[in-house]
Specification:
The protein is mainly alpha-helical and about 120 residues long. It has one domain. The protein is about 75% helix and about 0% strand. The radius of gyration is 16 Å and the shape is elongated. The termini are far apart.
Amino acid sequence: MSPTTIYSNEQITNAKASVCGAYGKVHRALVLSSERNGGTDATASLVVATSGRQVLEAGSRYLLTKLLEEPATPSELAAAVKKLADTYQEMVIGYLDGLTNSDAELQPLLQTSDDATSTIERLCK
């Protein structure tokens, strides 16, 4: 059995700030990506869709890496960020498999993403 690491209040505060900052960056990138519109040009629409998938993929890896770098992250925040990152990865696979946000198969993932986002935003206030 490995010993439990006890973190100082300062370590916990710093880890929370770091993880919340990382979430903020990913969230802003996702918002910017979702505001883009390819219009009626098929190539432009594909570029916009690809950009959105890249944000989800890179963002999920960035968040998981940040959690590894910040072991003092409060457990509820860490769980919500991990859930969001895992959900982003599932969403990317769904999108690459041809699903869209209106497909029933994607609805549980979209709800999980919304729930995790709400939890993170509440904890990062």
